[in-house]
Design goal:
single chain, 478 residues, mainly alpha, 22 helices, 67% helix
Length: 478
């Protein structure tokens, strides 16, 4: 579209305002007003026409977009009037996620806004085009659910475009929001899908760190890169890629030490301990957990490290360590109860459901299936149906029932998990619990038809999709 003079722009805005007021007096719907503006003023593109049909200024539209982000617990994007102006005048293209967001905002479809039709992230609820409604969006989990994550990276990329290639305050705010979103929504996505998106966002940090930075800004970017590395390490752990998990955890710990972030160091050492436990390296798990506790600054974090690295590793030595496991159980419960913040959601936090799960697993390891069953049921009560923690709690119940020789009940519980969780969303930790249950049922001799059918289903599980890419490790050299 050819550049217009400021005077001509003012004329078009006045004419569009006249059309909107005439349409309102006639009882037109918003889509009728927008169509009339486009028909009468061909120099006004559809995207701008819809905003003018509502009578909104660009700042008002931006504030409404920010409100949509707040509804999803995201920091508002680094969007400004200049960027919206460039979208409306066609000097830069609107990405698919923002296209979907604009469709939701204006209550219409992409083609009517003159935007790409693939708007996989935000979908309008019924009533599009019938006038302004309170903004509402919902996730459309397409392309292996990755579309539900891309808007977070889009926010960071838009902030970089606003701040410049070295980033700036808006970029760092967007990155902080991204870390928080990835952590809080960790259980909502298959690990490989989340890992790919976190990789992509962390690569943006690496690119920024290659630019000149003030010392304080560089330290903040390294801290954020550390938490991103911790997330990638955790996804690798849940995909059974333990070598990759240890590399990413080591990077996270190194970055934590560089910026003196004790919480990052503590969490990462605790995750290292959990990985060691999963690999049957129980003494290594105990040693790593002991080191992590030196950095644990809150009762909640201490409860987490005790449960992750000490309790289960101690209980894994068997009934002879029952008294030690009981002591650690009490200590973890006391620390959890003492934290003034209570249950802290998200992968970087800890909550009652996860603590109860680990208490139950420890009870099973020391030979107390009744107590294990009680803890598992209590854990399940804290978790929405179908989430990974729910699956873990049901599988612990199944193993406790198998220990009580209730084979059919055990098989039914495990089958419920397989009926509910898609195979590629079934974490390696859940698969390990399934395999352990299968071994226990097989050792029973003839546990029954239900157990034999479960064995076949477990054997038929496809392999987990791995992380399909690597990324530069911002390990302190930049």
């Amino acid at each position: 579209m050819a550049a217009l003079s400021r005077a001509r722009r003012a004329e078009l805005l006045r004419a569009a305002g006249d059309i909107r007021r005439r349409g309102q007096r006639a009882g037109w719907m918003v889509d009728q007003i927008a169509h009339a503006i486009c028909a009468a003023l061909p120099q006004v593109a559809p995207l701008e026409a819809w905003r003018l049909a509502y009578g909104w200024s660009r700042p008002q539209a931006i504030n409404s977009i920010a409100a949509l982000y707040v509804e999803q617990d995201l920091a508002p994007p680094a969007l400004n009037s200049a960027m919206l102006c460039r979208w409306e005048h066609g000097t830069i293209a609107v990405g698919p996620e923002y296209a979907g967001l604009l469709c939701t905002l204006y209550g219409t479809t992409a083609d009517k806004l003159g935007l790409p039709k693939r708007t996989s992230m935000m979908l309008l609820q019924p009533g599009a085009g019938s006038g302004y409604r309170a903004p509402h969006w919902r996730h459309a989990m397409t392309d292996d659910q990755s579309a539900a994550l891309t808007v977070v990276g889009e926010s960071v990329q838009l902030a970089v475009e606003t701040d410049g290639p070295a980033g700036g305050p808006a970029t760092r705010d967007a990155l902080e929001a991204a870390v928080r979103y990835y952590a809080l929504r960790y259980s909502s996505f298959p690990p490989a899908v989340l890992a790919a998106e976190v990789h992509r966002t962390r690569t943006l940090i690496t690119q920024m760190l290659r630019r000149p930075q003030a010392d304080a800004d560089r330290a903040e970017l390294r801290r954020l890169a550390g938490w991103m590395s911790a997330l990638v390490g955790n996804t690798a752990f849940h995909l059974a890629d333990y070598a990759a998990a240890q590399i990413h955890f080591a990077t996270a710990a190194r970055l934590g030490a560089t910026v003196d972030d004790h919480d990052l160091i503590c969490w990462t050492l605790g995750a290292h301990a959990m990985t060691a436990y999963t690999q049957d390296r129980y003494q290594d798990a105990l040693d790593l957990a002991g080191e992590a506790l030196e950095y644990a600054a809150t009762p909640l974090r201490r409860a987490q490290i005790i449960a992750w690295g000490q309790l289960r590793a101690t209980a894994a030595f068997g009934p002879s360590r029952r008294s030690d496991a009981a002591r650690l159980t009490g200590r973890a419960q006391d620390e959890m109860a003492a934290d003034p913040r209570g249950d802290q959601p998200g992968r970087f936090g800890f909550d009652a459901a996860e603590l109860l799960l680990h208490l139950g697993e420890a009870a099973l390891l020391v030979g107390d299936p009744v107590q294990a069953l009680a803890h598992a049921r209590a854990s399940q009560d804290h978790i929405p149906h179908g989430r990974p923690g729910w699956a873990a709690a049901l599988l612990l119940q199944a193993r406790a029932e198998a220990a009580r020789r209730r084979w059919a009940d055990a098989a039914a519980l495990a089958s419920q998990v397989l009926d509910t969780i898609p195979a590629q969303s079934l974490r390696e930790t859940a698969r390990m619990r399934l395999r352990a249950l299968d071994r226990e049922l097989t050792a029973a001799g003839d546990p029954g038809r239900e157990a034999r059918a479960l064995h076949d289903r477990i054997a038929a599980l496809p392999r987990l999709a791995g992380i399909s890419q690597s990324s530069d490790e911002p390990n302190g050299t930049v």
